[in-house]
Design goal:
This protein is α/β, with parallel strands linked by helices. The protein is 36% helix and 26% strand. The chain is built from 11 helices and 9 strands. Helix 3 crosses helix 6. The longest helix is centred in the N-terminal third of the chain and has 17 residues. It is globular and about 45 Å long.
Length: 260
């Protein structure tokens, strides 16, 4: 890790609500909207509309408790299974699913969904559709070869991981190890969708400086290829926000499938 002062998410955790408010909210001072929400959702919308990525089961293993990236995916899978490293993230997500007081407000992403779909009527039930599609939220342990040990999950048609590898990997070797564990969740012909930050070393969540694994686009491409994946689409969105909160250069989006 780059600095002993950085906290390591799998060990130290962070305030999941603070993460949402800082990087995913609709606050006027929140400057990450294009990078963390609009760009990934545009890429996901394009990927799913092509019609190749669909099936019975989608597994999401993303950092924190954000769900906006799953609004689009929920229309293409019968069920979504969500894996989280933190009990606090699970509690935050359950608050939203059960429409409890204080649940995070995702209405700004519903508005953006209407823009992407070009049909406001189509989006009216997206919230219900997604909540119904998420059939299970589980705690996972990244230190175990079977992330959900002792339970063995059915293989997924697709795995989505947004910023999780950045936060749980100490270095690039660790990144490869963790990616291989994520790949084990897939069917042989399954699709892997990855969202991450390029050349980041840290991200602030409240007063906590969280370690992030530094890598570039070329590294990820080489890893995917070496693990037997064909990259269907790779997009890089240069960071639009200059902030002391996080030091990434760009957001990376990749969809890939394995060779059978």
């Amino acid at each position: 890790m780059d600095s002993s002062s950085h906290k390591f998410y799998p060990v130290d955790g962070f305030d999941s609500r603070e993460l949402l408010e800082t990087y995913f909210s609709n606050k006027q001072e929140m400057g990450f909207l294009d990078d963390t929400m609009k760009f990934p959702m545009e890429c996901l919308h394009r990927a799913f509309k092509e019609g190749h990525i669909k099936g019975d089961l989608l597994i999401d293993i993303s950092i924190g408790s954000f769900i906006h990236h799953l609004y689009i995916a929920s229309g293409f899978f019968k069920q979504i299974l969500v894996l989280k490293c933190s009990e606090q993230c699970i509690m935050e997500l359950n608050r939203w699913i059960n429409t409890r007081t204080g649940a995070f407000d995702w209405s700004h992403m519903m508005t953006y969904m209407k823009y992407l779909e070009g049909n406001s009527d189509l989006c009216q039930d997206k919230d219900i559709t997604l909540k119904t599609a998420i059939t299970k939220i589980m705690k996972c342990d990244i230190d175990k070869e079977n992330l959900t040990d002792p339970e063995v999950l059915p293989p997924a048609d697709c795995v989505i991981s947004a910023w999780m590898l950045d936060a749980i990997s100490k270095d690039q070797d660790d990144y490869i190890k963790n990616l291989r564990n994520f790949i084990k969740l897939l069917k042989p012909e399954g699709y892997l969708i990855l969202v991450g930050c390029l050349n980041a070393t840290y991200g602030m969540v409240g007063q906590d400086k969280i370690h992030m694994c530094k890598y570039d686009e070329n590294f990820v491409r080489k890893v995917f290829t070496s693990e037997g994946f064909i990259i269907d689409h790779c997009a890089v969105h240069k960071g639009t926000s200059v902030s002391d909160l996080i030091d990434y250069d760009a957001i990376l989006f990749i969809t890939a499938h394995r060779e059978c």
